[in-house]
Write a structure and sequence with these properties.
399 residues; 35% helix; binds (2S)-amino(hydroxy)ethanoic acid; binds manganese (II) ion
Length: 399
């Protein structure tokens, strides 16, 4: 089946009627359906599918072995996400394998399609959780204790999904097999439409992290409490939202976003007791991100004090800037006839793997430039071009 047909096949899985778009999160029903779908589709291509100790799916063409050529992406989404972020890399990999099989090609080295778990961190809050666990770049105990919005832990969810959370952690055997990892991904931003090219080669990923501000005040009655008698945590929370925008706008290339803010108890006629605010901050490197977050944190503590509230700040995830393997990047660019090279502000599992294996990325044109929203899009012919480019590159790299 072609990448376009495979995307159509999962188009109904995990639709979010309330938000629009898709909500497919680690070990929830929709993601479980996608795991079953992937296993079935990969099986039809004669690939041997195994799930590693961290919930990542590996579909092997031939026996697993060293110096493997691995391609893939993720199937989970952000809440209310688009149809392409993640799945495009997976369906393109299946399409590419089928293309190579149909022409009678036999890979010169082990080849696998890899589907990472919880790349978006949409349920347990840490992005690239599957690749971070695989590489040991997150402490397994910390991972097991991560909580979802309902307060359930990753360990509990894993057990319900049939996994043994005790086994979470660096997987030396699986990691050592990867010689090259190549991730195809829908473009997130408007580079290719302006360049008039369907496919680009990834060059860098900017530094980015997530921080949680927890404000505590005094819950009370919205009508019976005079303004002078309040300790309303929503006030410093609002200051953080505005400060993130104001401060990041002053730093060349920096981005700071508050997309998630949760008051408790969350009643219309109730002054909140606590408000949690999640900050997503990104910039070219640590020397830009850290001062940016420090300045926002300063605003948070001053605003909390002024309102008689308390604030706690926790860093939930961080990754420095990453440059993909330069030789592979140049080889891909040349092989693809001088395809443009694009940096990205989005994080990817390929960036987590970069210190451990030769990694690269391909991007497929997204005419809207929008991602993490239902408007995310790629034309069928560009999806087909991306899958063909991936097949050509896999044939080239595995001979
Ligand atoms: O947040 C990101 O950049 C990625 O989509 N996980
Ligand atoms: Mn994403
Ligand atoms: Mn993605």
């Amino acid at each position: 089946m072609s990448a376009v047909e495979l995307l159509a096949e999962i188009a109904g899985v995990g639709r979010d009627r309330a938000r629009g778009g898709y909500s497919r999160h680690l070990f929830d029903r929709a993601e479980g359906e996608l795991r079953t779908w992937f296993t079935e589709r990969a099986g039809r291509l004669g690939l041997d599918v195994e799930t590693d100790r961290n919930g990542n799916l590996w579909a092997w063409w031939g026996a697993p072995g060293p110096d493997a050529l691995v391609t893939g992406s993720h199937l989970d989404s952000v809440p209310g996400g688009g149809a392409f972020d993640g799945p495009l890399g997976v369906v393109s990999a299946l399409d590419a394998v089928e293309t190579l099989q149909k022409e009678g090609f036999r890979p010169g080295k082990p080849l696998a399609v890899l589907v990472f778990a919880e790349e978006e961190g949409g349920r347990f809050g840490v992005p690239c959780l599957g690749s971070r666990l695989l590489t040991g770049s997150i402490d397994a105990d910390r991972a097991r204790a991560l909580r979802d919005p309902d307060g359930g832990t990753l360990a509990e969810a894993a057990v319900r999904a049939g996994f043994d959370p005790v086994r979470f952690g660096r997987d030396e055997e699986a990691l050592s097999r990867i010689g090259t990892f190549l991730e195809l991904h829908v473009e997130q931003g408007r580079g290719l439409i302006d360049l008039g090219a369907p496919v680009a080669v990834g060059s860098t990923v900017i530094a980015h992290g997530r921080w949680r501000f927890s404000f505590t005040g005094q819950g009370n009655h919205a009508g019976a409490t005079l303004m002078s008698d309040r300790h309303d945590p929503m006030i410093p929370a609002a200051e953080v939202v505005a400060a993130a925008h104001r401060i990041a706008s002053r730093v060349e290339g920096a981005r700071a976003t508050v997309g998630r803010l949760v008051p408790k108890p969350g009643g219309t006629n109730v002054i909140a007791s606590t408000v949690d605010v999640w900050l997503d901050a990104r910039a070219s490197g640590d020397d830009q991100v850290r001062p940016l977050v420090d300045e926002i944190a300063h605003v948070a503590s001053e605003a909390a004090a002024a309102e008689g509230c308390v604030v706690k700040l926790a860093e939930e995830s961080y990754g420095g800037s990453v440059a993909f393997d330069a030789n592979l990047r140049d080889e891909l660019t040349n092989f693809l006839g001088g395809a443009p090279e694009l940096p990205t502000g989005a994080g990817h599992d390929a960036a987590i793997l970069a210190p451990y294996a030769r990694t690269g990325m391909l991007y497929v044109r997204n005419p809207t430039g929008i991602s993490h929203a239902p408007e995310e899009f790629a034309e069928d012919e560009d999806v087909a071009r991306g899958a063909r480019a991936l097949a050509d590159v896999l044939r080239h790299l595995s001979t």
